[in-house]
Design brief:
9 helices, Rossmann fold, seven-stranded parallel beta sheet, alpha/beta
């Protein structure tokens, strides 16, 4: 199907009541990996821990990593059905998949996620900080302290907790990949606290890259634009969902399968001279005017 024909199809209006959303309830379901994606062993024998790995971008990264030869641990909040579905798909690639349930905004849960990964999968080579939530407000005055605290804890504290727990296990050649966002670079009118955390994650990426370079640990980020994931119907009303991604140069939202290869690249030896960088995957950005 051509990009022009793809762009002409609106998303079906839909909403979900709770974040971070459920893949099983979406229509159409996001594409996690292309059938014709051919792994080439670029991550053979590696172990990756992916937060928010049950659905959306995290699920896509898990499947791509598995097809490239890595075993995967998936940390997720409470979406058991999506997590089990992702684990089954990883195992169908011939790789091991560990499921770790819990709120990574709590330091003890992040510590446990890393400890279980190392104990059950035999080490840790790749940490992907991907879990996040977002909440719309029409006016900055509507930003309640409880919401801001929850967003910061989920999106930012979890990164700090996982990095701190993972560092003793990350040797030379290991890497950390953070999920930033186009909003972290450009802001967002109604996702104010979310955009602030993503901007902080970009700065965290630059800072950790400087701090860990001498240890041979690379730190980079991927900054997606509008991607069709469960977080979208769980964040916006049905009309917004129907228009989601239409204001990009490509006229549509991206699929997780179109973002995950950037995570493969950054985790592989192909990116051995890349650290402190952000790869933007955003359909060309928003149309001006």
């Amino acid at each position: 199907m051509s990009e022009k024909k793809k762009a002409s199809r609106p998303n079906p209006p839909q909403t979900q009541r709770r974040q971070p959303g459920r893949r099983s309830a979406m229509r159409p379901k996001p594409e996690s990996i292309r059938d014709d994606y051919a792994g080439s062993g670029r991550l053979q024998g590696k172990v990756a821990l992916i937060s928010g790995g049950d659905s959306g971008i995290g699920r896509a990264v898990a499947l791509h990593y598995a097809r490239e030869g890595a075993d995967v641990a998936i940390a997720y909040l409470e979406e058991d059905d999506d997590a089990r579905s992702t684990a089954k798909a990883v195992e169908a690639e011939g790789r091991r998949c560990l499921l770790v349930r819990g709120d990574l905004g709590r330091r003890d849960r992040a510590d446990a996620a890393v400890a279980r990964t190392v104990a059950e999968l035999g080490g840790l080579d790749i940490l992907v900080n991907n879990a996040a939530e977002q909440h719309e407000v029409d006016d900055p005055a509507e930003l309640e302290p409880a919401q801001v605290e929850r967003t910061v804890r989920s999106n930012l504290y979890a990164c700090f907790h996982l990095v701190r727990a993972a560092l003793p296990h990350l040797g030379e050649g290991a890497c950390i990949i953070n999920t930033g966002s186009v909003t972290g670079s450009r802001g967002h009118k109604t996702l104010i606290d979310y955009a602030a955390t993503k901007g902080a994650i970009h700065a965290l990426t630059f800072s950790l890259a400087q701090s860990l370079a001498e240890r041979g640990i690379r730190v980079n980020a991927v900054a997606p634009g509008p991607i069709w994931t469960p977080l979208i119907p769980a964040s916006f009303d049905a009309d917004h969902v129907a228009r989601f991604g239409a204001d990009t140069l490509m006229g549509r939202p991206g699929q997780p399968s179109e973002v995950a290869p950037a995570y493969v690249f950054l985790a592989s030896a192909d990116a051995s001279y890349i650290t402190g960088q952000i790869i933007h995957v955003n359909g060309g950005g928003h149309i001006a005017g």
